[in-house]
Amino acid sequence: MSPLYICNHMDHLTPQQRHKTMAAIRNKNTKPEIIVRKGLWKRGFRYRLNHKRLPGHPDLVLRKYRTCIFINGCFWHGHLVDSITMESSACCKIPTTNHDFWVAKIRRNKERDKEEQRKLAEMGWHCITVWECELKPSKREDTLESLAFTLNHIWLQDHGAKSIPYPQLEEEDMQMPMAAENEL
Ligand SMILES: [Zn+2]
User: Fold this and answer.
1) The three-state (H, E, C) secondary structure of the chain, written as one string
2) Rounded to the nearest whole angstrom, what is the distance from the C-alpha of residue 24 to the centroid of ligand 1?
3) Could you tell me the distance, in angstroms and rounded to a whole number, from the CA of residue 42 to the centre of ligand 1?
4) Neighbours of ion ligand 1 (CB under 5 A)
5) What is the β-pairing status of strands 126-131 and 67-72?
6) Cα 73 to middle of ligand 1, angstroms
7) Strand pairing of 60-62 and 126-131?
8) CA of 135 relative to ligand 1 center, distance in Å
9) What is the pTM of this model?
10) Predicted pLDDT at 18
């Protein structure tokens, strides 16, 4: 659907419908998500989007790396907000108007995130959260580089050990019959 079509189409919508449509568009291709997708693609990583069957519908799923990536907005997911004190942080300013409402809402989101990642971990998935603030132009490349590094590290942990032979054991195996022979 072209943006023009959306605009024409939107004129005929009620405010609620328009709000819903806008939210759907926003959720589908939020900018931070595009940055991560492009950054990973460029580095040769392949992924699936919004895996509906996994808890929390991770934004990106890299099966080969058994990794789910969540790209979280700092406000909605309460980045750097302590879940006990629930005080505002540098990147999540909890509004003073309707303060209790926002505290409750953000706390719920944080708890849900934690619970979903716990479930994923139980299923054998690694979870990585990329925060919106880590994708600011000044930090973007570092964030993507360290993300790539982490993914490669995960892959090596999963596969590296298996491909390394055990020279120590081989040596022992070779010596065993000799030791047995000496005893005869
Ligand atoms: Zn943040």
Assistant:
1) CCHHHHHHHHCCCCHHHHHHHHHHHHHHCCHHHHHHHHHHHHCCCCCEECCCCCCCCCCEEEHHHCEEEEEECCCCCCCCCCCCCCCCECCECCCCCCHHHHHHHHHHHHHHHHHHHHHHHHCCCEEEEEEHHHHCHHHHHHHHHHHHHHHHHHHHHHHHHHHCCCHHHHHHHHHHHHHHHHHC
2) 23
3) 24
4) 74, 79, 91, 131, 133
5) parallel
6) 7
7) unpaired
8) 9
9) 0.71
10) 65
For tokens 């020279």, what's the residue?
A: 167
Q: Name the residue with tokens 């971990």.
A: 121
**pLDDT tens-digit readout, 17-42:** 766 666 655 555 669 999 999 999 99
* Residue written as token pair 């072209």: 2
- Which tokens in the block code for residue 68? 């789910």
